[in-house]
Amino acid sequence: MNWDTYFTLRIVEDLGWTLLHSLWQIGIVSGILLLVLRILRNRSANLRYSASVLALAFSVILPVITFIQISATTSAEQFAERSSEQIAREQAIGNELPSRGQTLGEGSGGPHQIVIGSGTSAMFSGVREYLSRHIPGVLPFAVGLWLVGVGLFSFRLAGGIWQLRRYKTQGVETVDEHWCEKFSRLCDDLAIFKQIRLLKSTIVETPIAIGFFKPLILIPASLFLQISPRELETIIAHELIHIRRYDPLVNILQNAVEVMFFYHPGVWWMSEQIRREREFAADAAVMEIFEDSHVVYASALANLEEIRLRANQQTPRYATAANGGNLMQRIQKILKINTEMNRANSAWSAGLAFVLISAVLTMVFSFNSSSFVNGQNKTSNRKIAIGFVSIPPLDRTDNPPKDSDATARILIEKLKSHKIPAIGFVQGGLISDGDKLFPVRANIVRLWRDAGFEIGIGGFKHIWFSRTSYDDYVANVVKNETVVKKILDEKNQQIRYYSYPFLNTGGNQEDRARFESWLKERNYRFIPYTFDNDEWLYSFAYDAARNDNDLNTMQSVRDEFLDYMQKMLTHYEEYSHDMFQRDIAQTLVLTPSRLVADSSDDLFGMFEKRGYAFVSMDDALADEAYKTDGSLVIRNSGISWFKRWASKQGKRLREEPEVSEEVARIWKKAEAKK
């Protein structure tokens, strides 16, 4: 079709007039909805939601009716034009001359008609004539721009739907039996009888409900560790209510309306009112299910939003999410419900809770991702991610596997209680001979996996890169990869991270570059630890004292370890301030030892008291600091990335806190016996 044909198409002109009329039509509908919402401001959120959906539906129906009418009128005019031309030709044959008796003032062109048409009617006729003469020439261009806009917004919508499909198929696994039972009870309480799946995901950062034919709810795997079970239960109920109300279907339809009427601010405003009232309505339904849990639910929403902001992820627009809408208004309404139901003590506690949660949210909303880049040095912005090398716990003093199992269980419970989304790096030689898995130790890895923690890899054997040929080093990693995948494939999980044994990155730049290129081809990312330490020496001394049942030495080593870690934390904070003039997101390496497990409340509490938030490795490595060149090669050593960065830039290294004399003595004594 060429441009000349396009400009003469009747359907293009009809569509153009329809778009023009939609401007005032949708504007009127928006105004009416504004008035209705004001009238219904003290009524239920569900009623306001229904009014908003109805208004958006009318915004679609009116232009459709207009287009049908314009098209019908156009067809009638074309028929009338053809008929009038035929009649005119017939009259021209028999009436070539006017009648002799006809006066000058008679007929269609007489002076009286000219006078009659010269008033107000003539003015409006002139306006209509002006529009009729000039607007049709503009309409094809307007329709063309509209088609381009629809195409662009359709592309965005398709991308959003594809992203939802990715959420459904990648990085997901079933929840444990405990949560399956809770989920089943929630479905019964909500009278939901359709089959809905509850899955945990390593990709999404906020709970979302997807689909309407085969609905599912995705919960971030780390969320099981970051908020309390009671809070998480209210969040899951919120998503179930969305599914029961068919909100995912309505959400997709309103996104389609936004595509078609992207040019009209009234449509965007109405769509926003729908999303806002939809969340209010779902919140009210949650409160009906969980009596006297208003403060718990409000806290859950606040914690959820804080986690999302720390992860720097937008709430998915094409899925219904628990932290959608205006969060502060939602929390206020939730706590207001509590006040109305319990006017005495509950009113006071809800008011206090709202003040506290408001303060937390004000703090959360006051910072954004740029604050980590522009040198804002605020204690509340401190972050730290933890990697454990290696799981299962090392048998430093030849403890039996059952002792490793007990240590792992203690550590897992402590990590959960402190809401730490840690990564455990598997050393395959501890759980397999290369072909068969060692049942007890392999089950420790499964225990870690099923608790919701991520699993990465090191080498099958814990070897130095600088003392190993490139091919042998890669073969060692491949062997470990094969072993670990057997366990991860059971839950359809993927390996994403690699940890250098001894933090040693090779003996030369060429081997390191080749190996990191190899990692990239496999979609693995290595961990550049900023917080290296000699915790393993303290753990060895602690294990030796445990085997001797020497409680005094155990307590002494534990106290010295905590003092040492406090000094090391200060040491690396000073590095951070020297190099970046701010607190960057730190990455801490630990071993899953009995010492760490037994002292975890004090150890992790120390970080919490200094303002650190425990975050995922993804979150920590998103810090701009990790773009700093750390390609320094140190043959026979493994050092933290702070020291690599400083050495690469020619800066003097800071003096590091030393291991206590008692711990150093225990290690040297053990080495002398070998």
Which terms summarize this structure?
674 residues; alpha/beta; 2 domains; five-stranded mixed β-sheet; five-stranded parallel β-sheet; 7% strand
Walk me through the structure.
The termini are far apart. By secondary structure, the chain is of the alpha/beta class. The protein has 24 helices and 12 strands. Helix 15 (439-450) links the parallel strand 7 and strand 8 (454-457). The protein is elongated, with a radius of gyration of 35 Å. It folds into 2 domains: 172-252 and 271-369, no CATH class; 382-673, TIM Barrel (Alpha-Beta Barrel).
Helix and strand layout, with pairings?
Blueprint: H1 3-8, H2 10-39, H3 45-94, H4 111-116, H5 120-169, E1 172-174, H6 177-189, E2 197-201, E3 208-210, E4 216-220, H7 223-226, H8 229-244, H9 247-260, H10 265-289, H11 294-310, E5 320-321, H12 327-341, H13 345-366, E6 382-391, H14 401-417, E7 423-426, H15 439-450, E8 454-457, H16 470-488, E9 497-498, H17 509-521, E10 525-526, H18 535-547, H19 551-580, E11 586-590, H20 594-598, H21 600-609, E12 612-614, H22 617-621, H23 641-648, H24 661-673
Parallel strand pairs: 2-4, 6-7, 6-11, 6-12, 7-8, 9-10
Antiparallel strand pairs: 1-2, 3-4, 3-5
What amount of the residues lies in strands? 5-15%
Q: CATH class of the largest domain, please?
A: Alpha Beta
- Based on the structure given, which CATH architecture of the largest domain is correct? Alpha-Beta Barrel
Q: Major beta sheet, specifics?
A: 5 strands, mixed
User: Helix/strand-derived class?
Assistant: alpha/beta
- The gross shape turns out to be elongated
Gap between N and C termini, in Å? 87 Å
Radius of gyration computed on alpha carbons: 35 Å
Number of helices: 24
Q: Number of folding domains?
A: 2
CATH H level, superfamily name of the largest domain: Glycoside hydrolase/deacetylase
**Residue-averaged pLDDT:** 80
- Determine the CATH topology of the largest domain: TIM Barrel
Strand order of the largest sheet: 1-2-4-3-5
Total count of strands = 12
Summarize the amount of helix as a percent range: 55-70%
Low-confidence stretches: 93-124, 338-358, 360-379
